[in-house]
Amino acid sequence: MVKQRHDIGFFERYLSLWVGLCIVVGILLGKLVPNFAKTLDGLSVDVNGAPVVSLPIAICLFFMMYPIMVKIDFGEVIKAGKGLKPVGLTLFVNWAIKPFTMYAIAYAFLGLLFRQFIGPDAFDYIKMPFGLDLPVGGEYGSGTVVIHEGIKMVAVPLWRSYLAGCILLGAAPCTAMVLVWGYLAKGNDGLTLVMVAINSFVMLLLFGIIGGFLLGLGKLPVPWQALLLSIGIYVALPLLAGYVTRKLIVTRKGQEWFEQKFLHLLTPITITALLTTLILLFSFKGAVIMANPLTILWIAIPLFIQTIFIFSITYFGAKIMRLSYENAAPSAMIGASNHFEVAIATAVMLFGLSSGAALATVVGVLIEVPLMLALVGFCKRTKHWF
Fold this sequence. Notes:
Layout: H1 10-13, H2 15-32, H3 36-41, E1 44-47, E2 50-54, H4 55-70, H5 84-113, H6 115-118, E3 123-127, E4 139-140, E5 143-148, E6 151-157, H7 158-170, H8 178-184, H9 189-217, H10 224-253, H11 255-291, H12 295-320, H13 325-336, H14 340-351, H15 356-381
Antiparallel strand pairs: 1-2, 3-6, 4-5, 5-6
Helix pairs in contact: 2-11, 2-15, 4-10, 4-11, 4-14, 5-7, 5-9, 5-12, 5-13, 7-9, 7-14, 7-15, 8-9, 8-13, 9-10, 9-13, 10-11, 10-14, 11-15, 12-13, 12-15, 14-15
């Protein structure tokens, strides 16, 4: 088998810069052509008059997810038994600690410390969950059903909408980018591959349960049908498509051709899908950002603290458990990183492209690369601890 290098590419290295450019382009697009993004988002599948799946956005988000899933070698999962301690540590932190500390930290900052800055009386308008037809004035979670721009929607406090995005990030651990972080930290690539595969399976079961529970705890609308549909479209479908594609190509063309040729063909598709989604999102949120330029900072601070906290407890937990550095580094990276593709996709489907929840998930993209590169450097400087 060809050993694939996971060195950080040009796009990944400057991901925060591209997101910044998307903010600028999106805001300009929203001002110059205000109906462009709204028209595209309006090309949707509706149920009972409620937009359920925006077709252009669904296509973009699928092609964000599919290349991640096609890289996973599920055959590696059977080797996980050789490293029960690092696998157990990672799973425990990812699913028993991380979602709940994310909720607590985000609530403390967005709902208490920064609430005045965000706007205590500011509201966000999110999708009415399909299958639900409440009358105008009816209450759903902390929201109220209103008519907004001719569509029945739910008005929720803006800070709670940002909280929803943070919750979705906290409940979506481990992205394929962690393959890059583990490689740069000179960790155990085998463990990283195993954990990416295992988390993809576990997410099918726990992402909806934990995410829905925490959304309800935050008095946010919990559209269970939409949540399950989101998991099906943006996790299960790409997972199945990735598995089938990998199996067919490796069987017919071989592992080397798959890694050296096919995966490179997907890179521009993934980049285009991600950047298109971000531009559309910021074309909706430009007015909010311009009115409160520090919005991104208020969201970024709890995400930054959560990432450092989860990394620390996993890294030092690995030291206490006497794991090798090669296993400790990727375990901590996996815990600290977020599957922001799933979080963005779910936020868009549940709450809408123009929602504060979707904006919060994109802030996770904005800070991930520089922060994770800093943590890679910290790991390499403390390798002698293990």
